[in-house]
């Protein structure tokens, strides 16, 4: 097999089965990259980037790295993460986020950190959680899937959540139309859930990506003046119930280590920690 530096080459549609076998080693933690592989068939035209594969001397795919807006090491040990980092340094940086298993992200950052100095925030140890059973609290019956007519009420809540979580507006630098399209896409897929009180969003969450094994949840949010009422706990329980019944048997998410109220809510629902992620944002 012809490979490039340190056994790394760009993967394509012919490599999809081998790539999916790699993500299947931990299908819940790897749900994002598996979703990207399945939805694009590793065709760079649809990926908006590349997936790099690293091979051993026998020609076996041992790790990978998704390189789009998000750079995500896949089943990468320290040596593989460093090899991917060296390849990344040889190209102009186009990514906005590095995210993945803590050990792999840390090894990657050891190499690129001195060169990629414009980092905005490092979140080193984010608990990765999953639930594969019924929620332990009563779901909120008022939570439902959003529909197209909810958009004008939902969109400001999505912007507020993004600004609070990421620290910048999703509409910055001309991003408004792209973000509006993303929110509409989630609605159209049935992946947007919310509770609307007199038209106002008082809880929301989305499914970010899906595989046959798992669905990853993102954007869990309650407006500041309604926090402490249990809306997030019962609301997310409702999301878990529907997603496990209709989308995938396991629901996962990752949370900032310092977000004690959210972690407590997830624990009450029945989520358990299985790993630690890290996120580096530019």
UniProtKB/TrEMBL annotation:
Signal peptide: none annotated. Transmembrane segments: none annotated. InterPro entries: Acyl_CoA_acyltransferase (IPR016181), DUF4081 (IPR025289), GNAT_dom (IPR000182), UCP21603_acetyltransf (IPR016794). It holds the Pfam family DUF4081. Residues 141-282 form the N-acetyltransferase domain. It comes from the Bacteria. This is GNAT family N-acetyltransferase. It comes from Nocardioides bigeumensis. The lineage of its organism: Bacteria, Bacillati, Actinomycetota, Actinomycetes, Propionibacteriales.
């Amino acid at each position: 097999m012809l490979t490039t530096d340190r056994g790394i080459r760009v993967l394509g549609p012919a490599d999809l089965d081998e790539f999916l076998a790699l993500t299947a080693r931990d299908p819940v933690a790897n749900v994002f990259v598996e979703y990207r592989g399945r939805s694009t068939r590793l065709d760079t035209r649809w990926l908006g980037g590349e997936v790099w594969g690293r091979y051993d001397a026998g020609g076996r795919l041992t790790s990978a790295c998704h390189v789009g807006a998000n750079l995500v090491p896949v089943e990468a040990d320290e040596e593989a993460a460093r090899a991917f980092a060296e390849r990344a340094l040889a190209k102009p940086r186009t990514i906005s986020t590095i995210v993945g298993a803590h050990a792999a992200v840390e090894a990657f950052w050891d190499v690129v950190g001195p060169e990629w100095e414009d980092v905005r925030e490092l979140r080193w140890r984010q608990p990765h959680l999953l639930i594969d059973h019924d929620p332990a609290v009563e779901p909120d019956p008022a939570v439902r899937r959003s529909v197209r007519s909810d958009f004008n009420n939902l969109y400001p809540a999505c912007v507020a959540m993004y600004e609070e979580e990421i620290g910048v507006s999703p509409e910055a630098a001309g991003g408004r139309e792209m973000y509006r399209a993303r929110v509409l896409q989630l609605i159209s897929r049935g992946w947007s859930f919310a509770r609307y009180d007199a038209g106002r969003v008082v809880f929301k969450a989305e499914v970010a990506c899906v595989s046959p094994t798992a669905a990853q949840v993102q954007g869990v949010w309650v407006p500041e003046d309604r926090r402490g009422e249990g809306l997030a706990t019962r609301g997310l329980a409702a999301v878990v119930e529907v997603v496990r019944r209709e989308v995938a048997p396991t629901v996962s998410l990752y949370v900032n280590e310092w977000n004690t109220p959210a972690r407590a809510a997830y624990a009450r629902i029945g989520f358990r920690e299985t790993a630690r992620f890290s996120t580096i944002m530019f």
